[in-house]
Amino acid sequence: MTVQQWDVIVIGAGAAGLFCGIESARRGRRTLLLDHANKPGKKILMSGGGRCNFTNFDITPEHYLSANPHFVRSALSRYTQWDFIALVDRYAIPYHEKTLGQLFCDNSAKDIVTMLLAELDDAGGQLQMQTDILSVGDDGEQFVLSTTEGDLSCASLVVATGGLSIPTMGASDFGYRLARQYGHEVRDLRASLVPFTWNTQDKTSWSALSGISAPVTVSAENGQAFTLDCLITHRGLSGPAMLQISNYWQPGQSLMIDWLPGVDISAQLAADRHQQGRKTVKGWLTQWLPQRLAEHFVEQSQVQGALADLTREQSLRLSSMINHWPFRPGGTEGYRTAEVTLAGVDTQAISSKTMMSSKRQGLYFVGEVLDVTGWLGGYNFQWAWSSGWAAGQVC
Ligand code: FDA
């Protein structure tokens, strides 16, 4: 059987793979992107509620988690958010800043995928979907891929297979297995940017409040904190505050939630009990909190009646329930709904400049498959663009 020869094969036609393929094809490298899914960029299409939060005005290494926090510096500084925004502008794709520097398409995430495919086509890169890779062999010079569509060989192999989240969208552990095949460490994987589930005890008292959203400050045991919206659901706690903190949470740990950031309940009670002493505690709390949530705190901390009648002990109970509520999640919703996989291929044996493996010349890892995880807010796509670009300059 004949073996089709390529200079570069990129496995995975998602955000990072497409970007890498565009760049390598532009350099005149005969480039093939392989993917087992039926269409490219599926996660781009479903991202940002269908509008793709494609980058952020404020990209810095501090927005990323990795065992080596410096790893992202080079790629992020050589292909920046401004470079990607310039590309989006060149295609006249309308976009807007939603909040906190997060840039979303005005119309549809399809605009981004269409742009990337046009770039790939213009550069002369080839795309082959619905192809399963059965094995990756290696004769020391060339990689030899056995696929359901025939055998292929290449001098440079780029692994852009992403993480494990949303298995129904084509996620697989292929990249991690290939990394191990070449002696790379894969750091412990975990679903992240993901909602939390209730423990059995909290479920009983909290799930009736589902649908309520409120700004909170949530802190992890390592001190990382976010002040953002939290959404109470039947299953647990969700919303941007919870997704962000999930990057910093380990199973078995607790989170601390302040349901009224900026209002110190103890101090406020002391100040208001004289002038507003006849108000019920519930009525008083509804100046800041949704009524059902205020009722919940009153019931749970067993403080009935008027402000003036509260004992010191009751005031403390109420304030700790509202300002310092320890939440011990039962777990998370897992890869079914997670936006990313935390950790991945250890960056210690990867060049931060080129994304090339130090174990095998010509082998590259880009995007989410690496041990690089961004915050919610366009950071993960920027990593995909920047790391894909970096490998695309040399592969
Ligand atoms: P990506 O997952 O995009 O691509 C991997 C590709 O490899 C896929 O096409 C897959 O089919 C293919 N593949 C996997 N295994 C294979 C195999 N064995 N053989 C062949 N092909 C294989 N980020 C952000 O910055 N802003 C946002 O708005 C969002 N929103 C968002 C919403 C949802 C619901 C999710 C799940 C995720 C996000 N993200 C996000 C995260 C973002 O989508 C993610 O970090 C990037 O898509 C990662 O890009 P990659 O190219 O590394 O992987």
Task: Give your account of this protein's structure.
Residues 190-340 form the RsdA/BaiN/AoA(So)-like insert domain. Residues 7-393 form the RsdA/BaiN/AoA(So)-like Rossmann fold-like domain. Keywords: FAD, Flavoprotein. The protein is an alpha+beta fold and 395 residues long. The protein folds into 2 domains: 3-190 and 341-392, FAD/NAD(P)-binding domain; 195-332, Elongation Factor Tu (Ef-tu), domain 3. 30% of the residues lie in helices and 23% in strands. The chain contains 13 helices and 21 strands. The chain has helices at residues 15-26, 42-46, 73-78, 81-90, 110-123, 174-181, 200-206, 240-246, 265-272, 281-285, 291-300, 312-323, 379-392; strands spanning 3-11, 31-34, 53-56, 64-65, 95-97, 102-105, 126-128, 133-138, 143-147, 150-159, 190-192, 196-197, 213-219, 225-232, 236-238, 255-258, 325-327, 331-332, 340-342, 363-365, 373-374. Strands 1, 2, 7, 8, 9, 10 and 20 form a 7-stranded mixed sheet that branches. The protein starts with a strand and ends with a helix. The mean pLDDT is 97. Bound molecules: dihydroflavine-adenine dinucleotide (FDA).
